Amino acid sequence: QFRDLLQSVQSEYSYVLYYTKVRWLSAGCVFERVWQLKDDIVSFFHEKQCSAECEMLEDTEWLSDFAFFTDLLCHMNNLNVKMQGKNQFIDDIWAHLKAFKLKLNLFAGQLAKNDLSHFSRLNSTPSVNEEKLKNYEDGLKKLYFEFERRFQDFSAIQTELDIFNMPFNVNCEAVRSDLQLELIELQSNKQSFLNMPKLEFYKSLSKISFPNLISHAQKISSMFASSYIHCKK
């Protein structure tokens, strides 16, 4: 019946996406689609005389919360999409996560200043009060610390990831002794390896000259989320 209503009013959208626990990424899509269809949904409930549902959907405080969570889920969906696909190594995943933590800090700071630049749906809702914004700011801070807690193991291996991702820039004195001499050799000949894709770069290294660096690369690239696990020639 709701689909018939959407077609009768020539809505841009003719259906609402379904969410399942198996595909949690779809949750953000469901929130976004419901937001886009909220006026049509209210019209449908009015037609069916569903007063409780209409009251909820027309409540400004509920609408404000829904807008905030829709905006936040869209940001999190973008993070999830970036971490999928081929050619993603563990250092790439960590880079995406670090960037998202910085975004959360930015979002919280902006909400503290009533700046809704990155929360377009929330910005479009009428009369978002300061108490609400403070709650959203606190929620973003809690989410930031939850990311810190869940991914603290990444911070513990930051140097190892830097060696894998930026072998030409890492400070040789700050790395393990078994890698120091090989890194010096590598950095002294970096013109031979510049602009090579990461996987091809490690495949091109001589197993005789750089056995420890290759072993290190195999270890890092075999961690979860990496698309490739072999570095050999």
Structural summary, described in words:
The protein is an all-alpha fold. It has helices at residues 2-8, 25-36, 38-47, 51-57, 60-82, 90-112, 120-123, 130-150, 152-156, 158-165, 177-188, 198-204, 211-221. It has 3 domains: 1-58, no CATH class; 60-165; 168-222, no CATH class. The protein has 13 helices and no strands. The model is unreliable at 5-14 and 226-233 (pLDDT under 50).
What percentage of amino acids are in beta strands?
under 5%
- Helical content stands at 55-70%
Distance between the termini: 62 Å
Give me the strand/helix succession: HHHHHHHHHHHHH
Tell me the number of strands.
0
The secondary-structure class comes to mainly alpha
Overall spatial form:
elongated
- Gyration radius over CA: 25 Å
H/I helix tally: 13
Q: How many structural domains can be distinguished in the coordinates?
A: 3
Give the overall pLDDT as a whole number.
81
Largest sheet: none
Weakly predicted, low-confidence segments = 5-14, 226-233
Element layout with pairings:
Layout: H1 2-8, H2 25-36, H3 38-47, H4 51-57, H5 60-82, H6 90-112, H7 120-123, H8 130-150, H9 152-156, H10 158-165, H11 177-188, H12 198-204, H13 211-221
Helix pairs in contact: 2-5, 3-4, 6-8
